[in-house]
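Recall the central idea of this unit: under ordinary conditions, the amino acid sequence of a chain determines the structure it adopts. In this exercise we apply that idea directly, starting from the sequence alone.
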Amino acid sequence: MVLNVRLRWFAAWSAGLILTFLAVPTQWRGLPFMLLTLSVIPAVWSGARRSPAGTRSPWWFMLAMLGFFNAGNLVWIWDVEVRHHATGDGGVADLLFAVANICSLAGALIVVVRRGRRDVGGVIDSAVAALAFGGLLWDAAVLPHLTAAGTPLVRQVTLFVSLFVMCGTVGALARVSLASGTRLPAVRLLAWAMAGAMSGNLASIFFTDPATGVRPDWTNALFLVGYACTACAALHPSASTVTQPGTAPADDLTPLRLTFLGAMIALIPIVGGVRMIAGEPSAGILVALGSAGIVPLVMLRIARLASQRRAAEKSLRHLATTDGLTGLPNRAACLADLTTALAGDPAGTAVVFLDLDGFKSVNDGLGHAAGDALLVAVARRLREDIRSEDTVYRLGGDEFVIICGSDDVDTIAARIRDLVTRPVPIGAGDVRIGVSAGVAHAVPGDTTDGLIIRADLAMYEAKRAKRIGALSITVAPEPVAA
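Accordingly, the structure predicted from this sequence is:
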């Protein structure tokens, strides 16, 4: 509640100062300007202090931005008001403003990266669209104006990079603020702050007198809007969560979105080429810089989608070959692995077919939840007790299979015997079970189904003992040659 009151008071305070700045005579405008820019500092400091440790870096960058901007403003006022330089911004002031812009961009990008880490595809798409818009705006309006004003190429490159990066940042912030699950007003206000700064830079480009370097005071009101939005973002209760990851929306590169990305890649060079064909000014180096900024983002987008597809395919393969209850490989995985083993060295392969004695009484007497808990506990013991080179599979129900080497059956039998000597803890208490096992040794010409069937029949022979809490093993005879 206190924060909301502070936010409302500051919003009213900043709106009043902006209106005062526009209404008072020129010689008095420095006062409301400095009052607003300086009052933003404690507001952002408050936002930084309220944020949890480790999440304050965006606000520290914003504070640095305010420090450099206010220092630049003081230099600018000294040059224009005291020394009466007619050139307006320049020299040290320009340098301080450039560093301030870098700090502002750094803080905004940290918010984009951390808040949008689960929506990388959407953030990239929005940034690409905003960059393409910035490139189009540059080619269609800004570049002709700068060329007509005789702006040096180095200055054009500086302005282009600044505008280009700001456009991309505003687009990414807009996406993060609108598509991150719980919409954060603080992020949206930061997007408006960046948009205000970008609008101020554009107004400075278009309305600065090329002869004197002086621009009208009203353009500074756009920067003041950016200052006010930054402070309001810091004062908003959601400021402490701007770096928390948002939700992960569906990310699918549909044909329409792919067409959109392709169009955005081609937009800047096409517009630049059309201007060159028409004989209008178009700086090739700026077209190259624009494409160089967009193409890596699109490539990153496509690479990410390819990675997601591979991960999805891997997940599907895992689901198709894994038992959902115990986490062991399932029947499909068992048959596939056994087929591979028989194709390699059938004479050295053995199958141990296990069935739990007493499982039905647990499942019927204590409930299906207890039965599931028993299966999970047995699966865990089997997985932990056998050797790493042998594999345990759950075929279904209370049936398990171990594929191992023929010479290792006795070792595995000893470990299974140890398993049945210990009670199995489940939610309802400890239970004791027995295990009936059938062993089948592969011979040349054995098939996967034939080997499994022989092991299964041997298990039923062992089960006739019906000794609960014991291990009964029967070895299947080799198949009779036809």
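The domain at 331-475 is CATH 3.30.70.270 (Alpha-Beta Plaits).
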